[in-house]
Each structure stands twice: as structure tokens, then as C-alpha cells.
Design goal:
single chain; 688 residues; alpha+beta; six-stranded mixed β-sheet; 13% strand; flat
């Protein structure tokens, strides 16, 4: 079969760095889906991207679909022909829908079958019909329209390259030019680069100062920055987020090194590195993990031809930022951190949920309750309460007002400068951990509890005023907060009831803020919300989705229990016999839901019922012992002993008999077994 390489490039105005990776992944996936759905063969698809382009190269793409011969079943023989052996309307309709004649039909197993020969379409025709929609289907957090066009994209599309082999594959895209002409670097490269072969694409752009492979750009930034740092006896600390962003804001990266004035090195590291990294996208140079050197690295989008001018300009910008930071820091230190607490009553947490002073008081009480539940030492409780009181004070400082990402970090620094003990200061910082999905967790007990209390207070408060996440919208990052609570509890192996945590957090809003809301429905919504986050973690750990559902509907809200059960059940269902266990208990459950109660009378039981009851009692005793020890693997193994008795029971006993007393008694007996099992696991959720 003939193949050609295909290149698609979408030339755009500069895309936001945060949009690029996801957009490129979508483009590739959409293209793969289109090729697979149309049964077009290819060898490989390579991603390319830069701030001004999204591109894919499809290698060895078949020039046409394969010709297909397939057999499709039609109507039964007895309705296909009339008494005169002429086709009936049923058969005629089948032939018309499949585009076949009587000569293409055959009879097999009392059915009519048609042999259908489909000639493969040209790939160029299929692509021309699909590419426009593929581009339009790329989603961004925010889109825009331009030039009176109907297309929505993150930034205006200026041109399209569509090259199949050595020919332009044209398609209509609202008047945007489709050709084999691309553009190089905005200032250093040509604005008219003719591509004659898709395989020349990467090299042609490199000649025009665009490294279109993001992995190569990243490697240049990483390697050359490390090389510069070593020249001054320093090192670069890992920062994947910054590296990713730098990769996506330049097309031709060239790291250069600038200097920081020594006078600024007396400031705390965070005060120096935050404006460098988060505002200017500079890479700090360290002597060790905690000691900064007076250097920074910036990434030039181009060559180092004018690096002296560039470095001098960047040094001036950084100096201005650090001068501001130095002033804010010195001003903030003129009074102890506790003095800022007095002003918290003037800062609104949420217009329906009170101010930050009230929030600090709630999280202190909630934290104390968690501490008592965990039976932590009185000294830890004391540190926790002190940290809770000071937890939001740094939000009123100049530094945090200017650099909001330093909340918590500045609180810790100012607490230490104010004479607070190390554990209290650390807890103030740790209340915000984890800040993202793979972020580090609090290391101190006080910090971990404060973090849980703060996040639980926020979640419960916002749910109580119906400010809950919906779809992709989560403006208050409540999903992240719930995941943070779950991760902290699991990491510390703390056996805290999520339900009781929610109960007390909601109670504080009623008691402290006199907040009015539907308590039961709010609590149920929050429990469901937490379960959805727990399921995300279970799935990430390789737990089957039906097993996750099965453990989450059981009556335990202990995370330790839930994760132990899920892990044990995942292993259990690698056995063939496990299917029989699920089938037996699901059969039981499907009848148990018809029972009104689980109280039954022994005198009304048939011999087979009594036999099942005896076996159940034996199994129950052993399973209860295993469950108490959280030995769920063995507990599920013990449940196997009831499979045969359950099947024998159903094979020999009619449940839905006419006698109402006996029928209800049997249903109640079945429900008593089901209630015990459901308390541990809901086998009806398992898909065999």
C-alpha cells in the first residue's frame, strides 16, 4: 500500500503558556480518533509546538482506506421470500440499505447474509472533510473570535500548513490561507518558508530559529542553565512547573546569567525568589538547597548576540522588584505578627460566611476537636491553637498583599521573627499544603490538623451557601481542598470519620455564625463530593472503577477502611471464584431490597433456610473477627463459604410464595444476611 507523510501546522498569535500542552495533546488525540474511525493506517504521529504554532506530523499515512469485504446478517429466511420465492419488503429494504443485489446474498443458519464490498476512499478526501472540525474541536479555558469569523480559538489563527507528501491538501477554513508556507522566529527567521516535504519541517524551522520540538527546547533550557550555574559554583533546584512554562514561552531558548546585588541576599529566600520566579520567570541559582547565590538565569527567546544589553535590562527590572520587596518586608517587621490579628475582623472571608477573624476561630475549634479525637499531646494542641489564631494574620501584611503566592510562607517567617516557637510557625505555613495535586504534605502534627480544619471549614461553608463546584467550574478550588484532606489523612494513617468532620464543621457555622441552611441535604452533598474525590484517588491507584463504587457505598466512612477494602477486593477479583461470590451475594441483594425489615421468625423457616442460617452464623463470626483486624483479604476469602449454601437455598426454596407471612419472613431473613454483607461491601456494584 502506498503511504505519504502528512504535516498539519496551525499558525497562531502567541498562545498562553498554560494552554499549549493540553491543546497539543487534544490535537493529536482528535487526529488519531479521526484516522481510527475512518480505518486509515499510519505508522506514527509526532507532536510539535511552540508559542506560535501547534503541529503534528503523521508518518507513513496510507493514501487510501483498505478495500473491505464484510458479511452482514439480514432478515430470517422465513420472512425474506413470499410463497412465489420473490423478495419480501423486509428483504428489499435490507438490500437497499446495504446497496446489494440478489446475487450478493447467501443463506446460512436460516438467515439471509449479504456480502458487501466497500472500496476504500482516498485519504486526502477524508482529511479534507475532517481537518477543519478537528481544529475547531480543540478546547481552551478561554476562546476568542476575530476578524468577523465564526471560529473560536485561544488566539487568532493566521495561517494553516497542510502538506500531504509533496502536495498541499486544501480545505475550507473560513478564508484562512491553507498552503505549504510557514513562518520562522518573529524577529530572526523568515516569514515565508516553503516546505516541500513534511519530513523537512523540523530542520527548516530550526534554520529559522524555531526549535519546534518542545522536549528539545526543554533540554536546552535545563542543560544550558545547569552549565551556567556550575560556572559560578552553583546549582539549579528542580522546578518542573517553571521549566514547563519557560519551554512554552520561547521558540529559540538561550539561557543567560545575571547578577543580584549582595544587599538583597539578607532577605529571606522566599522574598527574593518569588518575584524572580513567579513574576519574571527567572531561574534562581543556589549554592545549596537553602542558600542562594547572587545570580539568576533568564531565558532569551533568540540568540545571545545582545546578551549584555539583555542581562543589564533584566538586572534593572529585578532590582526594582527586590527593592519593593525589601521595603515591604522591613515595614511588616515593625510590629509582631499577632498585632495584625486585630484587623482580621475587617477582612471578608465571604460575604455570607463572615470575616477572617471568625474563620480563624472556627478552624481553631475544629482543629482542637480533631486533635482530641486523635488524642495528640497537650503541647501539640497548644501549638495548633496558637497557629490557628495567627493563621490568617499575614494576609494583612504588605508582602502578601503584593505577592499573594507568599501567604503562609510569610506567616511562618514573621511568626519566627515575632518569637513564636518553630512548630507553631511551621503550622502557619503548612495550613496551605498541599497546594496542588502532587505537592508535599504537612510534616508537623499541628500543621496537618490545621490544614484539614481550614480546608474542611472552607468546603462546608461554601456548600452551605450553595457555592459548590459544577462541571469544570471550581472557582474556590474545593476539589483540590478535598483531595488535600484525603491525602493528609492517608499519609498520617489517621482514622478520622469524614462524616463526623463534616458534622462538626457545619455545626460551627450554625453555632458561631448563625448560618441557616438545609443541614441534611448539605451534609449529604458534601459526603457525595468527598466520595467522588476518594474515587479519583482509588482509580489513580489502579483500583477498578466498579470495585471503587462497591466500597464507597458500604457503611464505612473511614478512609483507612475504604482503601484497605479496595486494595483487598482488587486482589480478590483476580481469582476466578470471586465472580461466583459476587453473583451469589448480588442475587441475595436483589431480593433483599424487597424486604421491609430484617426481623424474621425461626419457627417459620424451612429446613433449607435453617441450614443457610447456620452456615451464615459461622461465616459471620469469622468475617467479623477479620474485619475488626482490617484483614479484608481473609474476610473476602471466608465469604466464599456461603456461595454454595446460597445457591442451594435459591435452587430449593421459593421466596415469593403466596403465604404472606412466610414470604415476608424469607425476605427478612435474606435481608439480614444482605445487611451484614452490605455493611462491608456491596457486591451488586461489581461487573463480572
Amino acid at each position: 500500500m502506498m503511504t505519504k507523510d502528512y504535516l498539519l501546522e496551525i499558525g497562531v498569535e502567541e498562545l498562553p503558556a498554560a494552554y499549549i500542552n493540553n491543546a497539543e495533546k487534544q490535537l493529536k488525540n482528535l487526529f488519531i480518533k479521526a484516522l481510527d474511525e475512518n480505518k486509515i493506517k499510519y505508522k506514527d504521529i509526532i507532536n510539535y509546538q511552540s508559542p506560535r504554532r501547534l503541529a503534528i506530523l503523521v508518518k507513513d499515512l496510507a493514501t487510501k482506506q483498505d478495500d473491505i469485504t464484510e458479511t452482514q446478517r439480514g432478515p430470517k429466511l422465513n420472512i425474506a421470500y413470499d410463497e412465489n420465492k420473490n423478495p419480501t419488503k423486509a428483504l428489499e429494504g435490507f438490500m437497499k440499505s446495504k446497496g446489494v443485489s440478489l446475487n450478493d446474498l447467501e443463506i446460512k443458519d436460516d438467515y439471509i447474509y449479504a456480502t458487501i464490498n466497500k472500496k476504500g476512499q482516498a485519504t486526502a478526501d477524508i482529511l479534507a472533510q475532517n481537518i477543519s472540525q478537528i481544529i475547531k474541536n480543540i478546547n481552551f479555558p478561554k476562546n476568542m473570535k476575530w476578524g468577523g469569523k465564526e471560529i473560536r480559538f485561544a488566539r487568532p489563527i493566521r495561517y494553516i500548513v497542510s502538506l500531504f507528501g509533496d502536495e498541499v491538501l486544501n480545505f475550507d477554513f473560513e478564508g484562512i490561507k491553507v498552503s505549504n508556507i510557514t513562518k520562522g522566529h518573529r524577529f530572526l527567521g523568515s516569514s515565508h518558508i516553503e516546505i516541500k516535504n513534511p519530513l523537512d519541517y523540523e530542520e527548516l524551522l530550526k534554520e529559522n530559529y524555531v526549535i519546534v520540538d518542545p522536549n528539545k527546547r526543554k533540554e536546552i533550557i535545563k542543560y544550558d542553565s545547569e552549565k551556567l550555574a556550575k560556572e559560578v559554583g552553583g546549582e539549579i533546584l528542580p522546578d518542573e512547573g517553571l521549566l514547563e512554562e519557560l519551554t512554552n514561552i520561547v521558540e529559540y531558548p538561550t539561557p543567560v546569567m545575571g547578577r543580584i546585588k549582595d544587599e538583597y541576599l539578607t532577605l529571606p529566600n522566599e522574598v527574593i525568589t518569588t518575584p524572580m520566579r513567579d513574576h519574571l520567570r527567572f531561574i534562581p541559582v543556589y549554592k545549596s538547597e537553602t542558600t542562594l547565590l547572587p545570580y539568576f538565569i533568564t531565558i532569551v527567546n533568540g540568540t545571545d548576540e545582545y546578551k549584555d544589553i539583555i542581562i543589564k535590562g533584566n538586572e534593572k527590572v529585578l532590582q526594582a522588584r527586590l527593592e519593593d520587596a525589601k521595603f515591604f518586608y522591613q515595614e511588616d517587621l515593625k510590629k509582631p505578627l499577632e498585632d495584625y490579628v486585630k484587623e482580621l475582623n475587617g477582612i471578608v472571608f465571604h460575604d455570607k460566611l463572615g470575616n477572617l477573624e471568625e474563620k480563624s476561630q472556627r478552624i481553631a475549634k475544629l482543629g482542637e476537636k480533631i486533635g482530641e479525637t486523635l488524642e495528640i499531646a497537650p503541647e501539640a494542641i497548644e501549638n495548633l491553637l496558637r497557629a490557628a489564631k495567627l493563621s490568617k494574620a499575614d494576609l494583612l501584611t504588605n508582602m502578601v498583599n503584593e505577592f499573594t503566592e507568599l501567604q503562609g510562607k510569610m506567616g511562618m517567617i514573621y511568626a519566627e521573627k515575632s518569637g513564636e516557637n518553630q512548630l507553631t510557625s511551621q503550622a502557619i505555613y503548612e495550613q496551605y499544603l498541599p497546594a496542588f495535586s502532587k505537592d508535599k504534605l504537612p510534616q508537623s502534627t499541628a500543621g496537618a490538623i490545621l490544614s484539614i480544619a481550614d480546608k474542611a471549614d472552607t468546603i462546608c461553608g461554601l456548600f452551605s451557601i450553595d457555592e459548590k463546584p459544577s462541571g469544570s467550574q471550581d472557582p474556590f478550588a474545593l476539589r483540590r481542598a478535598a483531595l488535600g484532606i484525603i491525602r493528609i489523612l492517608l499519609d498520617n494513617k489517621w482514622d478520622i470519620s469524614i462524616e463526623k468532620l463534616i458534622d462538626y464543621a457545619l455545626y460551627l457555622y450554625v453555632d458561631e455564625n448563625n448560618l441557616v441552611f438545609d443541614y441534611d441535604s448539605t451534609k449529604a452533598s458534601i459526603m457525595q463530593f468527598f466520595n467522588s474525590r476518594i474515587k479519583v484517588i482509588l482509580l489513580d491507584q489502579g483500583i477498578r472503577y466498579d470495585i471503587a463504587d462497591a466500597v464507597l457505598v458500604s457503611n464505612s466512612d473511614s478512609l483507612i477502611d475504604i482503601f484497605a477494602k479496595a486494595d483487598a477486593l482488587n486482589k480478590f477479583f483476580t481469582q476466578e471464584e470471586a465472580k461466583k461470590v459476587a453473583e451469589a451475594f448480588t442475587r441475595l441483594h436483589n431480593l433483599a431490597v424487597k424486604a421491609e425489615a430484617n426481623d424474621f421468625v425461626g419457627e417459620l423457616m424451612a429446613e433449607e433456610e435453617k441450614n443457610l442460617f447456620d452456615k451464615f452464623q459461622i461465616m459471620r463470626e469469622t468475617v467479623e473477627q477479620k474485619v475488626l483486624k482490617r484483614d479484608y483479604e481473609e474476610a473476602f476469602e471466608d465469604m466464599k463459604s456461603l456461595v454454595e449454601p446460597i445457591n442451594h437455598f435459591f435452587d430449593n426454596v421459593m421466596i415469593m410464595v403466596e403465604d404472606e407471612k412466610i414470604r415476608n419472613n424469607r425476605l427478612a431473613f435474606i435481608k439480614s444476611i444482605d445487611d451484614f454483607i452490605i455493611d462491608i461491601i456491596d457486591f451488586s456494584k461489581i461487573i463480572n
